[in-house]
Amino acid sequence: MLHPRTQLGYGMVNGEPLFLDLNSDSYFALDQKDRECFLAHRSGATGYTGEPECEDLACATRASPPPIAGSVLNLPEVPASPLLIAALWRALRLARRDLARVPLADLVEPFLAAPEEVSTRPDAQCITAAHRIARARTFVPQARHCLTDSLAIMRLLAAQRAPAMLVFGAKLDPFAAHCWVQSGTMLLNDHVDTIRRFTPVLTVPTCSATR
User: Fold this and answer.
1) Helix, strand, coil: what percent of the chain each, to 5?
2) Whole-number Å distance between alpha carbons of 89 and 58
3) The dihedral of CA 84, 106, 144, 60: what is its sign?
4) Which of 29, 98, 165, 179 has its Cα between 20 and 30 A from that of 11?
């Protein structure tokens, strides 16, 4: 089972706490009373008395992945490996199937690592592997979908013992959700300009091999 601090995350989006619960695969905000309660609880305000009605949110972790500085999509092209193209196609097919059948929390659990095992520095092996996967993706005739693609790349990176971070983000006015994979400050499966539109809400630290 996922640790509570991995199940539930939040980010401050336009000054408001926005939550993602992986168990229910849903984003949610708070009403004014619960918002004030949650922020007071988080800040440890000395003038606050009593247990917050939103105490169930006490385990939420604020998403704080390293800020993105670049993307492998901007690196020079590399040769496309037929074997990797086939492996990516299978990973995408499996991710799409699993998303229709399995709760999101269960899908990310095999990749989990303890936070202290995750470096904020870009991992050279991970970037090299993701660069090749990104090139292979251009040869797979399947519409891009951020969650499907992110789960697929996580599986391939884990198979190559290359650790990374799976990040979920959102924006408001209008609401939109997105997810991506990064290694330290390097984005592995998206463009920097796209990611900058979203505030991280939950970060899943990932290990170098599935359990």
Assistant:
1) 40, 20, 40
2) 40
3) negative
4) 98
DSSP character at residue 112: B
What's the rounded Cα separation, in Å, for the pair 62 and 92?
29
Question: Which residue blocks in the chain are alpha helix, DSSP H?
Answer: 4-7, 32-43, 82-101, 104-108, 124-137, 146-159, 192-195
Q: How many Cβ atoms are within 10 Å of 29's Cβ, its own excluded?
A: 15
Nearest to 57 by CA among 36, 83, 77, 72: 36
State how far the Cα of 209 lies from the Cα of 159, in Å rounded to an integer: 6
Q: Is cis: bond before 174, omega within 30 of 0?
A: yes
Instruction: Say yes or no to pLDDT of 183 above 60.
Output: yes
Confidence (pTM) = 0.88
**In the structure encoding, which two tokens stand for residue 97, read together?**
């199937």
Q: Minimal CA–CA distance to 11: which of 69, 64, 66?
A: 64
Site of tokens 């202290």: 116
Delimit the domains of the chain by residue range.
Answer: 4-62, 70-205
Residue-averaged pLDDT of the chain: 85
Query: How far, in Å, are 18, 65, 109, 111, 169 from residue 115 at the CA level?
Result: 22, 11, 14, 12, 19
Q: Please tell me the predicted confidence (pLDDT) of residue 113.
A: 60
Query: 124: which DSSP letter?
Result: H
Q: Check whether 152 has a pLDDT greater than 70.
A: yes
Q: What angle do CA 5, 190, 92 make, to 5 degrees?
A: 80
